[in-house]
Design brief:
Strand content: 25-35%
Helix content: 25-40%
Distance between the termini: 67 Å
Structural class: alpha+beta
Order of helices and strands: HHEEEHEEEHEHHEEEHEEEHEH
Number of strands: 14
Largest sheet: 6 strands, antiparallel
Strand order of the largest sheet: 8-9-10-12-11-13
Radius of gyration: 23 Å
Amino acid sequence: MDENAASEALVPQFKLDRLLNQDQGGRRVTLLGSINDKPTLLTAERAAFPSDIKTLEVFHKNLVDVNNLGTNDIYHWYLASVGQAKDNPPDLKLNLISPCTEKHIKKYSPQGVRMVTETPGIYEDHVRPYVAKQREEGRLDWVFNILEGRKEQNDIIYRDPGQDGAKDEAFLLAPDLNWDRKTLTSLHLLALVERRDLWSLRDLNKSHIVWLKHMRGKVVEATVKKYPEIDHDQLKLYMHYQPTFYHLHIHVVHVMLEPTGTQAIGKAFGLENIISQLESLSGDNKNAGMSDVTLTYTLGESHDLWTQVFQPLKEGGKG
């Protein structure tokens, strides 16, 4: 038997003892077992998807056992398998957006990234009008479906009426559509505020400090109650800027969730750091807030704010 054949023959001889580790959102596992009574480690990782159209067409046709996890407006998410026996667990999490918009296509297409610095003046003169336009185009229907009780009600983990029943402090906690609902180390939840006048972290000010602390405490408490395998100090809370949608929300993820671009510096702003920054603002003016500070963050080169605001400012020598 040649060397390659001898090596290949080892894998079927592996006898599993236990799962040692699972990472990359459950896409890679390390197993502890034995071969010929000798301790052996076996790491299995899902191969990369093919990139040629013909192979992808075959892949799509081989999808089986497609089970819907939820539907809200144009968004649908599923668990599925690729050509496996029916009794096997699903090995794919699918997200479907139909009909998708040009903005969706840009978001999910490969693109270069730029660091931009947004002063209070740039925010007021350029960014806030852009955000207002996005909200007017009805891109938040799926959020309002949840808040108004039309969709995803069975998925809501916790609903808070606000401190002492203050309606402008109410919020709810639900799974993010990108989470498979089972792999705890890739846990991803969203806390959505019910009020509609807060669009992003830019709208937070010193008067919101107590509420933000209350929200953080309740979100962590509700999460560990729902998922007792997770401890308080295994959760990370942050907000995006720029966010994907302009309705104030907090991301709640497991600290072991492997960081992607959405958790990187310049995209994710820790909730504790936001609270600390608000507390450090000088003076007694309760309206002093995040709209008064300069923020540096990343933008994709296909993002409208890059093409319409920051690139022209750069080329004009003003940014």
